[in-house]
Amino acid sequence: MELPVEEYKEKLTAFWENIIRKSDEGEMAEMGRERIAVFVVSLILAICLWFMVNLSMDYNLNIDLPIEAVSMPEGQALAEELPRSATVSLSGEGWKLISVYNNPPAVEINVNESEVNLYEQVQQQLNLLSNISVQKVQPIVLTLDLEPRVSKKVPVQPVIDVSFDNQFGFKETPSVEPDSITISGAESVMGEINSWPTDTLRVENMSNNFTQQVSLKNSRLISLSHSEVQLYGEIVQFTEGESKVDLDTRNFPSGRSISYSPSTITVKYRVPIDEYANVQDNELFEAYLTYQQILEDSTGYIRPNVEQVSDNEYVRIRSFQPEEVAYFMVLDD
C-alpha cells in the first residue's frame, strides 16, 4: 500500500479552506460558540484517531535521499559530480515512514573504489531504523571518476549587481580581501579555471561607501581555501563634462588627404566631482579615422574612433556626437 502523504495534505488543506469559505459566507456565524467548540474538539479527536489507525499499517514510500561523498582518497578528487539524490523505495509502518519523509537522511558514499553499490550503502545506513526495509534504489550502482588532485591560486572575481542614486557610482572597481584564494580539485576540472567568482551581491540605491562580506560560489567538485571574502567599494558623486576634439587621420598613403564634415567631435564624459577641476585643461581624448575604414566604406559616412588619452583613470566616456561623419578625398597636385 502506498503511503498517501501528499493526499493527506491535500485533504486537510481542502477541508480548512472549506471551513474558511463557509465562515466568509455567513454559515458559521449561525452556529453558537459551544457548538463550534464541540465540533472542533471532535474533529481533532477524529483526525488523531484516524492517523493512529491508518499510520499503524504498512505502506510503501518513494523518497529522494541526498547523496554525500565522504572519505575521499588522499591525493584524489572527483572529476564528475555525484547525483544529488537517490530515489529509494521504502516499506514499513506509516509512522516510521513519515519520520523519514520529514527528515530524509543523507546517503554517505565512501569514495574508495571506482564503483559503489548504492543499494548496499542505503540498506546499511537505514538498518538503524527498525521496521523499515529498502525495496529498491535508483540508481543501483554509481561509477566514480577519480583523478589526481591539483591545487592552484586564482584571483577572486566579485559579482556585483547594484544600482546607484542619481549621479553616483563606483570611483573604481571594488577591492576584494583576500584578492585571491587557493582552489583544489581534479586535474581535468582545474585546467579551465582562471578565477573564482563570488555569489552575486545585489544592492539598490547606493550612495555611500560599503564594506560587505560575500560568500564565494560553492562547488561540489572544487575545494576552496576560503568560504567568503570582504568587498569594499568607494562610491562618489559624478558630474558630466564635454570636450571638443579635432578629427584626425591615420595610416593614409602619401599624396592623399581627406576632409571631414564636421571636422570636430564633441565627447561627453563622466568624472568624479572632486576630479573635475583637475581635468579641465588637459587633453582627454583623441578622435580619428583610418585608411582601412575608408577602403571598406561604400556609404560616404564613417563612425570615428574615440580613445581616452588622459592619465586620469576616473574619466569615463559617456557618448560622442556626431556618431558618423562625412568625408571627402582630396588629391594633391
TrEMBL record:
Record's keyword terms, sorted: Membrane, Transmembrane, Transmembrane helix
Keyword Transmembrane belongs to the record: yes
Top-rank taxon: Bacteria
Segments crossing the lipid bilayer: 36-53
Protein's name in the database: YbbR-like protein
